[in-house]
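Reply to thread "Modeling small-molecule complexes from scratch"

Following up on the discussion above, here's a worked example others can learn from. I took a protein sequence and the SMILES for zinc ion and predicted the complex. Inputs first:
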Amino acid sequence: MIVVSAGPEQRIDPSGDELGRDRIGYASTMSPAALYDATHGTWLLGERAHRECFALITHEGQGVLAVAIDRIEPVAPGGQGSERSVIHGEILVPGHTVYDTYIGVQSPVPPQRNPVGYFDATEERTTCACGCGELTLSGKDFVPGHDQTALHERVRQLGGVVAFIAWFDRIHGHWPDINVVYEPVSLKGGGPTGAPARARHRLGCGHFFLDEEGQIINRPRLATAGEMSSLRPCKSCQAASVKAAVGG
Ligand SMILES: [Zn+2]
Ligand SMILES: [Zn+2]
């Protein structure tokens, strides 16, 4: 959990603020949305911030706003100028465990000089994906080391690495170069349909659509790790991949 200590409400010059705001900080008269605007940026956030699920805004040592983090973005895209970030997310309301646990009570982080602190909240922990029943650190799937143990245990069950690879290639198919996805777009407007991609392709396979000027409508992007395992490889890309591998 990112714990941000906000000072009292302060009027500022919007032209000098990276988010164009006219006030920052906390006032008891602010609505949750106004408080969110005034406090979700701009902060110097460390690496750890990107693993956290929740942000808690505190004022004078008390929790005043809880946010389920959606994403954290640099204020200045492209990394020029500011190194500060903005926390984007959903404002939590009464009834949510994190709201009920941290709002209106003492901050879990003791007073410190840095306005940004971190807290290992039990609400962010999940049980280890290996099945051992232990709780992970926030944002982690496994207790450290348990991913390696779980993986090697499975390799051993199949008789070793050679047997494991043969099994994987037979069941899943090994097509590391078929790693591009074209977002489905509408053939009329060219806009994205929002539908998930149906297959993955080799870059440059030509299985995309062109507009009247010959521009590619659906731009390729690299498949995510999830898509590499869940999307089937395009049939003709598979054939091209085999050809490339044997030097044809
Ligand atoms: Zn485990
Ligand atoms: Zn293809």
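What I'd highlight from this example: Residues 2-124 form one domain. The helical segments are 32-39, 97-102, 146-157, 161-171, 225-230, 235-245. Questions welcome below.
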